Amino acid sequence: MNLLRPRSLSALALLGLAIIALPLVAALVTAGVQVRRLSETSERIIADGVVATRLTRDLFAQTSLLERQFSLYRVLGDARLIDTYRAHDARLREIEAQLGRQQRLSGTERALEEFSQVRNGISAQMVAAVQSTPDYPRLQDDFVRLQEIAGVVSTQTNSQIDKEVAALRERSQRTQQVMFWGFVLLIPLTAGAILLFSLRVGRPLGQMDRAISELGSGALHRPIAIRGPADLERLGRQLEWLRLRLLELAQERNRFLRHMSHELKTPLANIREGTELLMDGAVGELQVAQREVTGILRENGLRLQRMIENLLSFSAWQTSSSVGLEISEFRLRPLVKQIIENQQLALLAQRVRLDVNIDDLSVAADRGKMRLILENLLSNAIKYTPRAGTIFIRARAVEESLILEVADSGPGIPPDERRQVFDAFYTGKAPGGHVKGTGIGLSVVMEFVVAHGGQIEIIDGETSGAHFRIRMPLRSTNTPPVADSRPAAHGNGRRANAA
User: Which sequence spans correspond to the domains of the chain?
Assistant: First the structure.
């Protein structure tokens, strides 16, 4: 495996974690070492400072004791005071030696050396005082000089300690700056690792999400190609295999529908032609009962023709990425009137009343597809409207949009079926003994409305049954929108895709 270009998602995650964690761990270890060194240095400075302060204090004290012994001997002349003086002198020598061993007091060597010379001179005279009288004025001056030198040692010691503390403070500040900039440099490094992980993982995950959404929505014409870690690429290849399989199944289904629809159209045309001849009396005048039976045949022939047209339209939609529109300008009222006349027998058989209110509008759309939209909605309404019920058809212009509504007084559409009634081949539950249809009528309606750049929704509360509202441009173009326009889940009651 290439460490710089990992091929699996787990290896990429480990690389990203290492890019972020290793510099952070290194920075933390470095910071810990620096803090430990600073701590040790500060402890040593404090300890040496305490010792140096104690020794300089003892130096002053012992010097004062020596001077006191000298003053007592000068006054009393007692030889025993010489022995006491020697003891204090020995203690002062020891203090000098300890100060000389202090490595951090290297600047006091000359002062200590001078202090030792003056002290030795005083001691020599004090020891010889038993045999001869010492030069007391000179000794007094030597003691004054000794005190001055002790003061110089104390000053130099404090100065050296202050220098050590200042150097420690400067070193501490320098360490803080190094640690600060180290952590600052971690920010772009972390951002780079996040960006790398996003590009190497986020992008293929986004591609997979889009591919799965397209598969779910039935858009099977775009190949799926995932670029990224090996395991995600492998999953992408599986999705591509699934897309090809679904496309193959869809093509087989559409091919079957297309062939069956064409096979059915020929005998249906003969049946309809014979029925029309019977209705026109070409073979003789029909009796009332015969005319009623012939009317039933004619009505069911028309219904079967609409089903076949729906199947052909659905097949054409499924085999292409968009619906081709043949735009022409026409008046809406004559088209609605023609559709109502074609459904007249079914309306009379159900004794359904029509409430039609169509404004005198001219629209630019595909006339054939508009006819199928209205026929399917009206056929669906007739199927579920009870005897002596009412079907409402409305059309009006709002600004640059056509508002087309078809409603009935039937049982309506159940809320749990609202999002499915526009799915192909979904028939739902057939209430009140109604016979289910093919389940593609409303699917064709929705697809043709979308092809015109419009949308369809189910409205609540204005009628007791189902109420479909279509909003589409008065002047449609040949370019259908890609966006999903499935209806909002409004209303209540019971209804299914029955056309």
Answer: 9-196, 218-319, 322-499
Choose which CATH entry (1.20.120.1730, 3.40.140.10, 3.10.180.10, 1.10.3720.10) describes domain 9-196.
Answer: 1.20.120.1730
Residues 6+ apart with CB under 8 A from 157: 52, 53, 56, 99, 105, 108
pLDDT digits (tens, 9 = 90+) for 421-472: 877 666 666 555 444 555 677 888 888 888 888 999 988 877 778 899 999 9
β-pairing verdict for 401-408 and 390-398: antiparallel
Determine the CATH number of domain 218-319: 1.10.287.130
Q: Is the model's pTM score more than 0.70?
A: no
In CATH terms, the superfamily for domain 322-499 is: Histidine kinase-like ATPase, C-terminal domain (3.30.565.10)
pLDDT in tens, 377-420: 988 888 888 888 899 999 999 988 999 999 998 888 887 777 77
426 contacts 497 by C-beta, under 8 angstroms: yes
Residues in the chain predicted with pLDDT less than 70, given as ranges, are: 1-20, 103-107, 129-132, 134, 198, 200, 218, 257-258, 261-262, 265-266, 310-324, 424-439, 477-499
- Kindly state the greatest CA–CA separation across the chain: 179
d(CA 329, CA 372): 16
